[in-house]
Amino acid sequence: MCRKFQLLPVVGPLLACLACGEGDQGATARPNGQGAEALAAETLADWTRTLASDEFGGRGPSSPGEERTVSYLRDEFQKLGLEPGNGGSWFQDVPLVEITVQGAPTLTVSGPDGDQSVEWTDGYVGWTKRVVERTELGESELVFVGYGIVAPEFGWDDYAGVDVTGKTVVILVNDPGFATQDPDVFRGNAMTYYGRWTYKFEEAARRGAAGALIVHHTAPAGYGWEVVTGSWTGPQFDLVREGGNMGRVAVEAWIHGDAAAELFAAAGHDLAALEAAAAQPGFRAVSLGLTASVAIENRVRESTSRNVLAVLPGTDRADEYVVYMAHWDHFGTSDDEALPDRVFNGAKDNATGTAGLLEMAKAFASLEERPTRSLLFLAVTAEEQGLLGSAYYGSYPVYPVEKTVAAINMDVLNVDGPMNDITVIGYGNSELDEYVERVASSQGRIVKPDAEPEKGFYYRSDHFSFAKVGIPALYTDPGIDHVEHGEDWTMEQRDDYTANRYHKPSDEFDESWDWRGAIQDLELLYEVGHDLATSSAFPNWRDGTEFKAIRDAAMAGAR
């Protein structure tokens, strides 16, 4: 049974599409008009199919696949009539260092009853961010530090009373709010930044640890072990930083939950009991009576990757910019010849979003009357390596932060069909919510907060790099209430993708995808951006968010 909803004129072109049967994607039913009317499923699918093809090699940074990708994006932006976004160049160079672990080093854990071996990829995956050809842990004492969090605002300090200098800390992923499901502990089920693996490695380094092992469990991590082995083996990238990253711990690693439980048991500890204790206030670190040893040999290569920038100049307020962004990269092609499929095509993640960026540029370029503000279309590199391309832009913005009105991020478009709702990741953080609510209402949709806040999506895509420098940043996620199938069906599709295709070679283009939902969302994001680009308002963060003071200071300095 088809559940119908009303669409008002702002998104009228979608009406005919939604009237089609499930098998009709509506591509030929849409007029090739101006603005939102120029958004079309046919070209969106074509761009996605091309970017996700084996010919692009998985779009790995600093690979032949990158050269093909950024050249393709430049050519497509140029065909649409846009201008180079970095002076006379379409590119912003992003200096990267690529570190690749050689071989399959074994992690050896020693205790009173002898040694235990934790094998590469089966039980752990390790690397270093230090720019060195060799790094090691030599009988480094293992200390369980719970969630590895120091958060004064939550009254939490997992490092209280313990000196971990030169030791290896064992850390739980996510934060105590997820473990307890208590809304009064951190933010309950919603992950904070303290729950992210990036924070945990950073805090371990600040505490002087030699190594850091994060215990992997699927539910609190938000993805399975195959995602870990797919994401953290092969070349690992970082920005080229002063000092060669020697301030990081010598070895960073994930350890499989089952392997960790065996190690704890061998030392007379119950991992599950310690996990429960770690979720309670006042937890104190526990020395496990074990040591860890591993030697990692690296191939180190410095390279230059590129962000792609295209601009549509505004009229009266051309020095002010509204940014649309998407990451063009994925994990490239594996060196493991034993794999039946070595290409990480990244069709949904994020060929769809990159194609959406081109589609959005096409829509704005089709306007007979340009917006007063300029539009920057930014395709960033190395998102999968830790938001590196967007972080570099945040540190070295081509256009001043105080002249950047907002950023709108597109990371994985909806290929499941139209929804009655739309999700704003980080809903409640900024005044951009009001823009989304106005347009969503005209589409007959409801705006909802993140349906999976425990997975920490707010910290996992490029909008976060803009938020950290104060720029209001919008990141929407497809809704979950499918017009025809409802919520349970949608969550089944999401769970299936996470389990079977996310960050795996199986994330490939599918001719059966239903593009109606992607067009529906792109029309919404177009209208939000058009509202911003044709006004003089500068939306801000809400009081109480950690980014508002940064924005206020930047705007005060501009005045």
Name the shape in a single word. globular
Termini Cα gap: 56 Å
Uncertain segments are 1-31
Overall mean pLDDT stands at 92
Q: What structural class do helix, strand and pairing data support?
A: alpha/beta
Main sheet: strands, sense, barrel: 17 strands, mixed
What is the radius of gyration computed over CA atoms, rounded to a whole number of angstroms?
Answer: 24 Å
Share of helical residues: 25-40%
Strand residue content: 15-25%
Number of helices: 16
Secondary structure: number of strands = 19
Written account of the structure:
This protein has helices spanning 13-18, 41-51, 64-79, 176-180, 197-206, 218-221, 225-231, 257-266, 271-278, 347-365, 388-395, 432-442, 463-467, 486-500, 516-533, 548-558; strands at 83-84, 91-101, 107-111, 114-118, 124-127, 134-144, 150-151, 156-157, 168-172, 211-216, 236-239, 251-256, 286-312, 317-327, 373-380, 404-409, 421-424, 446-449, 473-478. Mean pLDDT is 92; it is low at 1-31. It is globular. The longest helix has 19 residues, at 347-365. With 559 residues, it is α/β, with parallel strands linked by helices. The strands form 2 sheets. The chain has a 17-stranded mixed β-sheet that branches. A two-stranded antiparallel sheet has the order 7-8.
